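BACKBONE GEOMETRY TOKENS
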Amino acid sequence: MSNPVTLPVPIAAALEAANAGNIEDFLHAFADDGAVDDWGRVFRGHDAIRRWSDGEFIGKQVVLEVTGVRTEGPTTTVSAQVGGNGFNGPSDFAFTVAGDRVTLMRITG
């Protein structure tokens, strides 16, 4: 991930883990009750996030090249060019963080 903007640690950890194909580190970035909202399909908790990721994210060898970051209130949105063996193209990932963990990663566009 090459990005001159400093991201909150849990977000940077999640993105780095995804790019490295490391599901354990990816899950560790999330709170126990954290969630992924993939266009309205919500996967809550580590087991559900793992199943989603295995089929649609890290399991598809996702590569995220950060192209922009913006923060509005408690939400940091990371724009990225997505590559890999699944979806390819631009996408936005809106993260909410509490303490040192991601509570929500919402894929928005």
Summary: Residues 91 and 109 are 5 Å apart (CA to CA). The mean pLDDT is 94.
